[in-house]
Structure formats: C-alpha cells, structure tokens
Amino acid sequence: MTRKSRTYLLSIFLVVLSVILAAGCGKFFPSASTLVAISITPSNPTIQLSATQQFTATGTFGDSTSKDLTSSVTWKSSSTNVATISSTGLATAQSTGSSTITAAQGNISGVTTLTVSTSGGGSLTISCSGCISQGSGTFTASLSTGSVTFSATNNGSAVNPTWTSSNTGVASIGSTTGIATLLSAGTTTISASANGASGSITLTVQ
After folding, report:
1. Domains held by the chain: number
2. What pTM value is reported for the model?
3. What CATH number corresponds to the domain at position 185?
4. Which of 26, 34, 44, 64 could link 30 by a cystine bridge, Cβ 3.0 to 4.6 Å?
5. Residue 58 belongs to a domain
C-alpha cells in the first residue's frame, strides 16, 4: 500500500470516528433543550370515590432546568374504570382500586400510581401566609417578599404533609417545613400529601 493510499484511508477513518463520537456525545450529553425526564406530583396519592386529583408534570432538561409541562404532555390512565384523566392532568375517581398515571412527551415519560379508596385519603386544604388568595386554589405573592409559608389541614385538622413545587425556578419549598422561597416571576404548582390525602394550589409570583 502506497503512502498516499494510507493517508487516504486514515482520513476516511478519522471522518467516520468523528461522526461516531458526535453521535455518542449527543446521546450521553444531551443539549440544553433536550427533555431528559418527567416527574409527576403528587406522588402516589390516595383519593376517595368520586373525588378528583390534579396532577402536575414537570420536565427536566439537559441543562438541569425544569419546566411545568402539565398542559403539553399526553396523560393516560391505565385503568379508566378506576380513574379517568383529562388532557390537563385532572383525574376523576370512578371506582375503588389503583391505576397507573402516565405523562408522556415524545419518548420521555413519568409515572405514578393513583389509588381510589372508600375511606381514608381525601383532599388537603392548603393555606398560605404571605400570599394573596385569588380563590379556586390560586394564590399570588410578591417576589420582593422573599418567602411565604404554606400549611395544610385535612377535615379541619392540621397535618404535616410532604411539600413539593413543580417549578423550582420560580419557588422552591422545604419538603417538611412548607416554607417556599420565591426565586423568580412565574407560576408553579405547590402540592402537599399526608397519610394518603393530597392537595395542590397554583402559586403565581409577581
């Protein structure tokens, strides 16, 4: 083989190798705009027969940022005889049992289990100190406030739930304290769950 031929083959090899490496990097190091995971809140809630449960889908992207995808994902209930779910993530109990709730966008999906029971479960009532109530489970808060505090009751009795925020770029919340730190203007869903009961509200930071 001549030196010229070897040089030509080496060039071909390097081109092929660069294509393979580029494809590999795209797979293992997704771009900032690539959706890499979807999480659903609240996680594994229990509700009573005929009750409803609002789910929130949060997408995590390649640059570790998160975004509320509740209205853009495709929602599915594995057992529609137990619970149906709308295109906006609102599940309605139909009969006792369990159903797997899936939120999907493209080939990325998240799952949780919804249990429908004739006893226990139920809905939590969420209040906010430092917010302004707009009615229908909606609150607003001023970014300059810095932080607000959430609390929850079940049938009038105070509970200590686990708290989550669907958009931690807008507001993060202590999972056990209910203290939300306001980080930027925008909207997030604050969810609480305790002893099989759950609830959620919409918080808009202005």
Report:
1. 2
2. 0.54
3. 2.60.40.1080
4. 34
5. yes
